[in-house]
Design a protein that fits this description.
Largest sheet: 7 strands, mixed
Distance between the termini: 50 Å
Strand order of the largest sheet: 9-8-7-10-11-13-12
Strand content: 25-35%
Radius of gyration: 18 Å
Structural class: alpha/beta
Number of strands: 13
Number of helices: 10
Order of helices and strands: EEEEEEHEHEHHEHEHEHEEHHH
Helix content: 25-40%
Length: 280
């Protein structure tokens, strides 16, 4: 008998992946966490029945949520990651010797523990000496900290534990927690399906009201809803196109899976329907 994992994208759309083995299943105080082995996408992590990452395409997401900011401001030293319990965003940040401090706050310690045990590909830099882990509500955490050059909101979708990370109040607290050179990057959902597109538009509206520079860029991630995914770039000072330091970033000679300096600029060129949904 064949085993398949199926994610419900909408009431009318489902996405299925053939599974070799259901490796692990555990329910935390916040969510259901599962690990599957698949022949096409390798090991995958799902939370509450939604794909968080697969070994095959996780680097697309983690490349785009980190390198875009670092190629705009190579002088980033202090970083906060909100969410990101699988460790992939931290992994990419640790590749920069110029970064001195990486704080990661995730409400669910179990996600980190499961990732450490079953997802070495993404969690292998969580013990870097520059990394400090905090297991608490990211919404409350941001209210009491400051001095970050970069905040990356690597959150789940705007339901359950991730809902508070899409509010105007949270983005205002992020603004206060950033330095005058600060950059905010957030995963911005898919523009394809109505529920996620509405969340995307609300988040963009909230961020745009706070930051003088606010743009959206895109990537194509096969196992995320619709495959078309957006990220938000907001800053007090740096424009990701005008202030882009392509030559400086290329001199670092970082080997990436998806991101490159040609793609950087192109990623901000959005389809018309996305621009309209964003209200821009």
């Amino acid at each position: 008998m064949e085993l398949w994992f199926t994610e419900l994208h909408t009431e009318n759309v489902r996405f299925s992946i053939k599974v070799d083995r259901h490796v692990h299943s555990e329910k935390s105080d916040f969510q259901q966490i599962d690990i599957f082995d698949t022949p096409e996408f390798g090991r995958i992590l799902t939370i509450d029945g939604i794909i968080m990452l697969t070994e095959k395409d996780e680097a697309i997401y983690h490349d785009m949520i980190t390198h875009t900011a670092l190629a705009t401001n190579p002088n980033i030293q202090n970083v906060l990651v909100v969410g990101g319990g699988d460790g992939g965003t931290v992994r990419e940040l640790t590749r920069y010797s110029t970064i001195k401090k990486i704080d990661m706050v995730d409400i669910d310690k179990m996600v980190v523990d499961v990732s450490r045990n079953f997802l070495k590909q993404t969690s292998n830099k969580l013990d870097d000496p520059r990394v400090s882990l905090y297991f608490e509500d990211g919404v409350k955490f941001v209210k009491k900290v400051g001095g970050y050059d970069l905040i990356i909101v690597d959150s789940t979708d705007p339901i359950g534990p991730g809902e508070g990370l899409f509010t105007e109040e949270f983005y205002r607290d992020c603004f206060k927690a950033l330095t005058e050179d600060g950059i905010l990057i957030n995963q911005h959902e898919t523009p394809c399906y109505e529920f996620y597109a509405n969340a995307m538009a609300r988040a963009h509206k909230h961020i745009k009201a706070l930051f003088p520079i606010c743009k959206v860029y895109q990537a194509h991630i096969p196992t995320y809803q619709s495959g078309h995914w957006l990220f938000g770039f907001a800053s007090k000072k740096f424009d990701p196109i005008k202030d882009f330091k392509a030559d400086e970033w290329n001199k670092l000679a970082l080997k990436t899976y998806y991101y490159n300096t040609t793609l950087h600029t192109a990623a901000f060129a959005l389809p018309t329907y996305v621009i309209e949904k964003l209200g821009d």
